[in-house]
Amino acid sequence: MRKISWVTAVTVVAALVAGGAMSVAPAQAAASCDTVSTTPTYAGKVPTAKQVLGFDLGSREATGDQLNKYLSAVDRASDKVVSGTFATTTTGRKLSYALVSRKKNLTPAALARLSTDAALLRRPDLPAAVAKVIEARMPAILWLTANVHGNEPAGGDAVDRIAYELADRTDCVASRILDNAVVGLIPSQNPDGRALNTRQNANAFDMNRDWFARTQPETSGKLDLLAKYPPQLYIDEHGMGGDSYFFPPNSDPTYHETSDSSVDWINNVYGVANGAAFDAKQFSYDTYQSGYDLFFQGYGDSVPTTEFGAAGMTFEVGQGASYPVQTEKHYTSGMASLFAGAGRRAQIVSGWHNAYVQAEKQGQQCSLQPNKVYNPGHTVQLPVPDMKVCGYFLRTDNPAKARDTAVVVKRLQQAGVVVYRLAKPLYVKDFAAYGRARAAATMPAGTYWIPMAQAEKHWIQAMLNENTYVPFPYFYDVSGWSMALLSNLDGGYTGLSLKPLSTVLPPVRVPAVKLPSGLPRVGILSYTSSPFQPSESAGWLRWRLDHDWRIPSTVLSPSQVTPSVLSHLDTLLVPDTDAKTVTTLLGATGKKALADWTNGGGHYVGWEGGAQLAAGLGLSTAVLRDPKGTAPGTLFRVNTPNAGTNWVMYNSDPVMTASNPANVVASYPALTSPDWYVSGYQQGEEELAGTAAEISEPAGSGQVTVFAVDPNFRAFSDGSAHLLFDALLASRGTAKAQPYVNSGQRSAAELRAEQSAAAMTRTYGASLVLRVRPADATAAGQVLRGHGVTYRTVTGPGFVQLVVDSGRYAPADPASWIRSLPAELAAAGAAPPLAIQTP
User: Fold this and answer.
1) CATH homologous superfamily for the domain 64-363
2) Within 13 Å and on the Cβ side, how many CA atoms surround 719?
3) Average pLDDT over residues 9-38
4) Which H or E run includes 76?
5) Which CATH number, 1.10.720, 2.40.170, 3.40.50, 3.40.1670, labels domain 522-626+655-663+691-759?
6) What pLDDT, on a 0 to 100 scale, did the predictor assign at position 8?
7) What is the gyration radius of the CA atoms in the chain, in angstroms?
8) Residue 694 Cα to chain centre, angstroms
9) What is the pLDDT of residue 31?
């Protein structure tokens, strides 16, 4: 499941609840044949799971190895199945897939033709006569995948069951699917997480956020497989709290570059088909009321939709139901969707090609799609500006950014975007550099040119946008994600239809990071609050060090922070953590060891909770406070004295100021500065203006560097990661020894930092944070107690927060009753909540 974050005011949350249930029309399939009432008939040629594994699928959770074993057994017994391995995890586990269809569609020659035909239909310039021939013969490509979150397993068992049913059934339901489609199946996208019972993979990555960055082998291998057999339908099966079920229509917002055909299929084909099947089985379900949007372009529904033109959908089963019921519901939704897609093969395949034709036409007209809302009672609150975008430029004349530019361009090329290189300088009279006013500029020869007039127009805008133009301020995840801004590239766009002298850029190579000699000895202080929720910030950091920068490091727990261990380190990195708990675990011995090590020449580098820890221990004199505004994963520009401007991902992080302004390394510009720019949604952002994003101060012979944000957010914030890289490799202080930690000269500044850090209400890993007005705190408490939970109260200016802590063994999924909190508070006589957040 995605982690829900209700970050706006009451009217947003309440509207989702007040809209009520969406009515669904009856399924369009013939009454004589449907996935619920048709009695399955079996040939008896394919062994059952009980015969192979010793138990029925869904009776209990199968392991990843058992899922793979059974899929292979079905393949061996049936000529309707071809299975294989598309990737290997970092721990060596195989990721299996299967293609299921009629034998004639699965021969090597037939699969090669399918791949070629699909690639041709994705070309807008394909002659209409050729397109019609391909559309007449090509089966629909329908993908059903599961278990991207390892602790949401039931979908994997359902996928294997569907492989068996399609391979052995002979009735009209199976025949319709097999006659009209090639079905792709992935039972587990995260076998390491399945084995560990963690949401994340072995690298502590939430892979349902990794789709455009492709940092993980599981994600990259899957996208390569989808490029070979691109989907017209892609289903990603998850688990959620409660015992209900979610399938689309989605909650607002939907990203504006989502094609109309995809939304139509999602809502009016698959949403309707699932509603009919669940009604027939008398299964409860939710649609847009559940809060699952189609906005951030990094999900297993949004990327297949925008990059591949598919109907990408997230399905969520309530894990409060028994495991057999969870599996049955996923099976029901999977079969209903495959049956609906296969039954409309001709319309879907032709519509898929036409969507690419329309995308190129929009690009030729330099037009962006308008924002739309789909839920009852909503109106567009931030329209897409009336502006022309004909194409993007990425400059190549700054050697320091060459590698980051190559990373972005490679990702674009992997997605099928055609990138050109200017053969000679080009004068652009309306060039809009990112976050700047339009002005005439000359693009040097060698600059990359990405015109919008091509098949992947929607994806180009999604990845290179200057702003996401949020239509409706409710978020499941981040609100800004431009790859160009995340990588701090030099570039921008033009509203003029240009045909510059250029050549198609061949596939780029990403060079290795150049490391200086004499690398510091690096340690990572990490703490995990729950065995089921490993520290993602630490995971992102370890991936960056191990796989991108290739800098060796040693991981320490709080109990290992001793003089002897620290004596072998030059730099200690402290990613986001539970600062208050870690402070307790360090004890007096650990606190003194850190202070002595820093005073003796060590370099402490921390961010978010790691910065709060440094301030609370007096290592840093930076003053941190809770933000008053809201920015749910928003890109802000910052100034760096030595390196110009950069971009950071701000996710309602602490607001930070320096005791000595000379120690500020990166800061937010003044509101009146031309450097001030925000990409994504924000409310009350003015509190950041002029504050610090990074501070580095000398302490004794050592150094303490703190970031208010995570500079390595999800390991795709390549631009701000340079700030971390610089901090890791070099001290920013002077050679002259400075006042020691805990010295009289620093005591006043340390005290201010400690008091401010202690007063912070920032929660780490809470199950629920409910923010209400002070007058409504009593009523809110009564509502929470009615659900049998305990909470602690944090009071701030004009609000009270009721925090329900996760506890060490709490699951990652929020309880289903959280969605009804606005209505329950209203019934208790309280005003709508200021915010509801499940981190």
Assistant:
1) Zn peptidases (3.40.630.10)
2) 26
3) 49
4) helix 64-77
5) 3.40.50
6) 35
7) 27
8) 25
9) 55
| Tokens standing for residue 496 | 């003029």
For residue 144, give the 3-state DSSP assignment: strand
Q: How many Å apart are CA 126 and CA 116, to the nearest integer?
A: 13
Q: Is 495 exposed, middle or buried (0-12, 13-18, 19+ CB in 10 A)?
A: middle
Instruction: Note whether 450 and 463 are within 8 A (CB).
Output: no
Q: What percent of the chain shows pLDDT beyond 70?
A: 93
Asked if 819 and 5 count as a contact pair (C-beta separation under 8 A), the reply is no
- Residue in the structure block whose two tokens are 């993980």: 216
| Local confidence band at 7 (pLDDT 50, 70, 90 cut-offs) | very low
CATH label, 766-837, candidates 3.30.1490.10, 3.90.1150.30, 3.30.70.120, 3.30.565.10: 3.30.70.120
Q: State the helix-helix crossing angle for 345-364 and 128-137, rounded to 10 degrees.
A: 150
Evaluate whether 522-626+655-663+691-759 and 766-837 have a shared fold: no
To which H or E segment does residue 491 belong?
strand 491-494
pLDDT digits (tens, 9 = 90+) for 464-520: 999 999 998 777 789 999 999 999 999 999 999 999 999 999 999 999 999 999 899
Helices (H), 291-344: 302-308, 323-343
Using the predicted structure, report yes or no on whether residue 731 has a pLDDT greater than 70: no
Kindly report, residue by residue over 231-287, the tens digit of the pLDDT.
999 999 999 988 999 999 999 999 999 999 999 999 999 999 999 999 999 999 999
pLDDT > 60? residue 4: no
- Ranges assigned E (strand) in 634-700: 634-640, 644-650, 655-657, 664-667, 678-679, 692-699
| pLDDT on residue 765 | 67
Question: Which residues are 373's β-sheet partners?
Answer: none
Number of Cβ atoms within 10 Å of the Cβ of 647: 25
CB atoms within 10 A of CB 11: 12
CB 199 within 8 A of CB 108: no
- Strand-strand pairing, 293-294 and 181-186: unpaired
* Total residue length of the chain: 839
- Nearest Cα to 707, choosing from 718, 722, 692? 692
CA distances from 174 to 40, 136, 159, 168, 300 (A): 9, 21, 15, 9, 26
**Tokens representing residue 377 in the block:** 């009672």
Output the pLDDT for position 813.
58
Is residue 793 classed as helix, strand or coil in its secondary structure?
Answer: strand
Point out which residues pair with 706 in neighbouring strands.
606, 695
pLDDT band at 821 (very low <50, low <70, confident <90, very high): confident
Work out the number of other CB atoms within 10 angstroms of the CB of residue 739. 18
CA distances from 123 to 182, 235, 367 (A): 21, 24, 19
| Paired residues of 450 in beta bridges | 392
Domain range annotation of the chain: 64-363, 391-504, 522-626+655-663+691-759, 766-837
Q: Look over the chain and give the mean of its residue pLDDT values, rounded to a whole number.
A: 92
Q: What is the pLDDT of residues 339-377, one digit of tens each?
A: 999 999 999 999 999 999 999 999 999 999 999 999 998
> Band of the pLDDT at 736, cuts 50, 70, 90?
low
What is the C-alpha to C-alpha distance for residues 209 and 534, in angstroms, rounded to an integer? Answer: 16
Q: What CA–CA distance (Å, rounded) separates 324 from 286?
A: 20
Element at 309 (helix H, strand E): none
Measure the N-to-C terminal CA separation of the chain; round to a whole number of Å.
Answer: 12
pTM score of the predicted model:
0.92
Secondary structure E strands in 241-330: 245-246, 251-254, 293-294, 311-318
Residue 534: C-alpha distances to residues 446, 539, 576, 595, 614 (Å): 43, 8, 12, 27, 22
pLDDT band (50, 70, 90) for residue 12: very low
CB 420 within 8 A of CB 449: yes
